[in-house]
Amino acid sequence: MKKGLILFIVIGFILVGCKSETNNGISTESNKSNAESAQGINPLDSSITGEFELYNGKTLKVAVIGTSPQIREEQVVFNEISFEELTKGEMVNYDAVFVMKERLIQASNSQYADIYLNSDIPVFFISANSHLPFTLKDTEYSQSWEWTPGNMFATGVMKDFDNGSLRELGFGLYNDEKTNEHIKATYSLVFKKIEEISL
């Protein structure tokens, strides 16, 4: 009887361990579409799909502060802008704004915080693990805010349409590995979220 109980416990641990392994990957406000969630499929699980899923939605126009990222999608158009253009209220011409890693220090200047907090479109800080140095006026961006494994790679904010509060968006890297393939796959998920927000 003791052997049977021990065997039952060991099998239980094995099953629990297997279940937790299938849940790794990207964590966000909502990194999965409803259909993918219902099927229990991680959209970045290349062992299931053979390759990471592309964004196949409508054409998106994204303002970029810094150098435009390399992506796989042809229907996403980047337009490099300056912080000065960001403050002129020209964001209405775009579906989203990306602030790239090389511009994060300048992006944390307190004069821009209100722009991010009141934006009607998502503003993403690429390779930053939090939006706090950009949305809190007394906090400056430093190396401690850079992406590290276990954290978000693309952190976004926008004003919530329903209640006017701050809406936070976050996208990690598959298996917390910073490879070109995983970065491009994360951008694909960001584009899906941008399209969902703009509908």
Give the helices and strands, then pairings.
Layout: H1 2-21, H2 34-39, H3 46-49, E1 60-65, E2 76-80, H4 83-87, E3 96-99, H5 104-107, H6 113-117, E4 123-126, H7 132-135, E5 154-159, E6 166-171, H8 180-198
Parallel strand pairs: 1-2, 1-3, 3-4
Antiparallel strand pairs: 4-5, 5-6
Main sheet: strand order = 2-1-3-4-5-6
In whole angstroms, the N-to-C terminal distance is 60 Å
Percent of residues in beta strands?
15-25%
Oligomer: single chain
Helix/strand order, N-terminal first: HHHEEHEHHEHEEH
**What general form does the structure show?**
globular
**Number of beta-strand segments:** 6
Provide a concise account of the structure shown.
With 199 residues, the chain is an alpha/beta fold. It contains eight helices and six strands; from the N terminus they run H-H-H-E-E-H-E-H-H-E-H-E-E-H.
